[in-house]
Each structure stands twice: as C-alpha cells, then as structure tokens.
Amino acid sequence: MGNLKFARPQMGNAIILKKMKLKFIKKIIVMSGILSIQGSLLYGFYYNENLIFNFKTAYLEQIYFPVYAYSLNDTKNNVTNNLANVSAIFGRNNFNETVSAGNQQSELAAKSIPVLLYHGIIDKPDGANILLENFKDQMFALKKAGWQTISIEDFYAFTRGEKQVPDKSFLLTFDDGRKDSYYPVDPILKALDYYAVMFVITGRSLGKETEMSPFHLSEKELRRMAKSGRWEIQSHGKNDHDFYKINANGNEGHFLSNKLWL
Asked: What is the Rg, in whole angstroms, of the alpha carbon atoms belonging to the chain?
C-alpha cells in the first residue's frame, strides 16, 4: 500500500509532463506554420514581380490617388492661376476661348501641338524635377480647359501633314524610364483619361541585370504599362546617359551632344 501511495503522484507528474510536452509541440508546429507562410510570402514578393506590382497598384489606386480626388475642390478653386501658368507654357492667352459657328470647323483642327516633357514626379523639391502637387494641378487644369492627350503616332502623322488632330491636343512625355515617373502619374492618367509616352534608356531597363533596379523601370513593368493602354514605350537611347571620351585630353561627355574621340 505504501508503494502505491508513492506511485500515484509519480504517475500524475508523468501525465502533466506529457501534456506540457504536447502543448509545447503544438506551439512549435503553429509557430513553424506561421513562419513558413510569412517566408513564402516574402519569397514571393522578392522573386515574383507580379505580386509587387499588384501591391503597388492597389496602394496607388486605393490609398495614394484618393488624396488627389479629395483635393480636387482646392484645385478647382485655384484653377485660374493654374490656367495662367499652363497657358504661358502653351503660348495661349485664353484656354477657354470660344469660336463662332461659321469658323468652328477650321478652329477645331490644331495648328500646332505642344509637347510637355517631364522626368521625375517627386514629393520634395530637388531643383531638377517637378513636385507631385504641381504636376497634378497642371494636369487637372489642362483637363478642365478641354485639352486632351494624343498618341505619338498621331503626333508624327500630324508633323508629316498626313493627319489632322483636334485643337487643344498635346503630347505628354516622360524621359529616362524612371519608376518615379510611372507610379505617381499612372493613377492621374487613369482618372483623367490621359495617355503618355515613356522614353526608356534601354541599357538601364532591359536585361536581367536591370530587373531589381530601384530607379529605372524593368522590362516587366514596361510591358504592364503598355498593356494598360495609358502608356506608349519609346526609346531614349541605349547608353545615352553614359559618358564617353570626347577629346585627346580624356575629357568625357554625352555622345548625343559631343563628337566621340576615336
């Protein structure tokens, strides 16, 4: 009997230890599952650019762009100043000019096509690129004044005298194939039904070594841009931002604006 009295507590301790081990094992399994899921997601985001693009697009359309929409009233309140600024660029004294019925047909055909060129669309001034707020104000002002973008093919056809385009047509372009030209701008184009041309430095956007560039758009991003119907992709040159030897002293410069020293 004495032995049984001592055995019962030992059996109880064994059961408790077994339950603790089972709980510990369950926690390990759960934690391992969570870490596996997190690891899979991180792996997918790192190697699958589709996930990254979808995330960026969702962020821009659902979070980033509503800021523009909410501030549209403020933009409309300041539209007079915006129109004056943009009209200075376009060389027009009055964006809202009306035409008589008798002269309407001739006035509807553009006599010239302004071309707007941008590089980076940024949040903080750097002395070289335009602020996002200013770009947004310009685009909303143009839209309100009745201006519409055209394709680069229409632009070329117009310059060759092969095609007429409506008055108040302009070509919207961006240089260098920069990410900060695409992601801030695309929601604005979508909202205003505008189109733009991206001139790409192919040596910095095409090829496997360029896929993870934090500055230039990758080939996959360029394909998605073109597929959206809001962007046309054109060449800005392959290595035209690189420097080359331009004289016997070894000075370097851009080949587009210098003769190469052979």
From this structure: 30
